[in-house]
Amino acid sequence: MDWFQLRYFMRAAELGNVSKAAEELSVSQPALSRAIAKLEEELAAPLFIRESRGVRLTPYGQTFLPYVQRAFAELAQGKEAVRSLVDPSHGVLHIGLIYSLGTRFLPELIHSFSQEEPHVSVQLIESPTHGLLEFLERGDIDIAFCSPGEDFRHLERIEVLREDLVFIVPNGHGWAGYERVPLIDAKDEPFVMYSKESGIRAMIMRYCKEAGFTPKIVMEGIEDLTVAGLVAAGLGIAIVPYNRHLLQLPVHIVHIDIPECFRAVSMVWRKDQLLTPAARKFITFVTQNRAK
């Protein structure tokens, strides 16, 4: 059993015609038929029923075909994987991102990169910071955009974005007409907080602790729009990264006066990970554009 026999069998089965398969594969029909006959002999089973207008698979052929197709698909993926390692202009780049970056910053960044590198396919996965760090550890993604703590010393990181943290309050709240409010004024307010899986939660809790209080958490959400939706329903106030899309909901944005609060977002990857040329090229691209 060799590669040519399997290829000839697969195309004849997919086209339902030996002559068309031979023409497509640039081989004579007798040569293709002999190769299939040898394959049938090795398997000790007929793969085709010959008919006047072509061929159709026997039950043996129907059973065998999916395995052959998967084998060729795996070979194609393996070829692409090696190609991506040696050719930075091709390949697949797996990027993880926190939810809030899916509507701003990253789409524009990837669009610009794709214009320069049109043959690199970019696949995205959204998750809280905790999940993204697990994906990095397993090698499921090449790069992540998130806010890991300083204790993750095995990661390389480049800060790419600073987002102001702001209050959002529901309609009718006493702060709805205010432009700025000190953080300490929130000490008696019910809070809608990010869930523990989200990296921003620890950041908000630290800011509140430094201001002299612990938030009174009444509800939790995993991403910005969920948190904002709970606030809009009147369940409490929240601290979130500034995002103009939140204004689509019935909430008011109130800036935090004292202290200045922000979230730093970094591009991170593992120090011990062998990066593909495409990933290295993307890191260089982001670094250069960040400097502009």
Give a quick rundown of the structure.
By secondary structure, the chain is of the alpha/beta class. It has 3 domains: 3-86, Winged helix-like DNA-binding domain superfamily/Winged helix DNA-binding domain (Arc Repressor Mutant, subunit A); 91-159 and 265-291, Periplasmic binding protein-like II (D-Maltodextrin-Binding Protein, domain 2, 3-Layer(aba) Sandwich); 162-263, 3-Layer(aba) Sandwich (D-Maltodextrin-Binding Protein, domain 2). Helices cover 41% and strands 25% of the residues.
Structure description:
By secondary structure, the protein is α/β, with parallel strands linked by helices. The chain has 3 domains: about 5-85, Arc Repressor Mutant, subunit A (Orthogonal Bundle); about 90-160 and about 265-290, D-Maltodextrin-Binding Protein, domain 2; about 160-265, D-Maltodextrin-Binding Protein, domain 2, CATH 3.40.190. The protein has helices spanning about 5-15, 20-25, 30-45, 60-85, 105-115, 130-140, 200-210, 225-230, 275-290, and strands at about 50, 55, 90-95, 120-125, 145, 155-170, 180, 190-195, 215-220, 240, 250-255, 260-270. The strands form 3 sheets. Strands 3, 4, 5, 6, 7, 10, 11 and 12 form an 8-stranded mixed β-sheet that branches. Helix 1 (about 5-15) packs across helix 3 (about 30-45), helix 1 crosses helix 4 (about 60-85) and helix 2 (about 20-25) packs across helix 3 (about 30-45). It is elongated. It starts with a helix and ends with a helix.
